[in-house]
Amino acid sequence: MENSINVETDIFTIISHGGNAKSIAYEALEAGHRNEFEEADKLMEDAHKELNEAHKTQTKLIQAEINGTHFEKSLLMIHAQDHLMTSISEINLIEQMIKLLKKIDTLQK
């Protein structure tokens, strides 16, 4: 991870990776509905990798601020934070839904 701060670029990195993570998680859920659980698990792993990238960038911004770098808080930054938190919540729910789909599949067999 690069140590320099480019706030606007970092904000778009959070939005991009957070959105990718959520989209991939929904693909995993669809795979779960098709009982393709290996694919669902792989996609969830990919979703977490994307989420991790967003979170690393968020952490970089937080650490920069703690260490004295001041930057203007913008509506775009608030949007990025909102986007990331929503992605985290939805991914957590999708994981639980896939677990339920696996149990249903087991019970139907």
UniProtKB/TrEMBL annotation:
Q: How is the co-factor bound, per the entry?
A: Binds 1 Mg(2+) ion per trimer.
**Keywords annotated in UniProt:** Magnesium, Metal-binding, Phosphotransferase system, Sugar transport, Transferase, Transport
Where Phosphohistidine occurs, the residues are 79
* Record-level GO BP terms: phosphoenolpyruvate-dependent sugar phosphotransferase system
User: Which residues act catalytically here?
Assistant: 79
- Names of the cofactor(s): Mg(2+)
Name by which UniProt lists this protein: PTS lactose/cellobiose transporter subunit IIA
The reply on keyword Transmembrane is: no
Q: Name one GO molecular function term.
A: metal ion binding
SUPFAM superfamilies, per the entry:
Enzyme IIa from lactose specific PTS, IIa-lac
Q: Which residues bind Mg(2+)?
A: 82
Q: Which Pfam families match?
A: PTS_IIA (PF02255)
